[in-house]
Write a structure and sequence with these properties.
mainly beta, four-stranded mixed β-sheet, Immunoglobulin-like, six-stranded mixed β-sheet, about 100 residues, about 0% helix
Amino acid sequence: MGTRVRLLCACVLLVVGSCVAVLSAGQVYLEVYGTGIRNAKNVTLTIGGVNVPVYSSGSQGIDPGLDQINVGPLPQTLTGRGQVNVVVTADGQAANTTNIVIN
């Protein structure tokens, strides 16, 4: 699979603000970590207002209470956008907005 980028956020409380993704490296996937996600039936994620496919979400499996969302590949249309918002929504409840820098 392509390059993986990790972003830590939470559905209720923002934990970490930003990270950098370089889309020219090929397919880029994003791992998002937070809480309150594991029991959600519908999880969505947008980056810069663009829907990104969520291919799995649930318990992270190692750290108790930590959940993981795997998304991607990130659309090439995001290339060079710079700092953009990342919004996770779980069963209609939006998390605090965080951001990522896309080169």
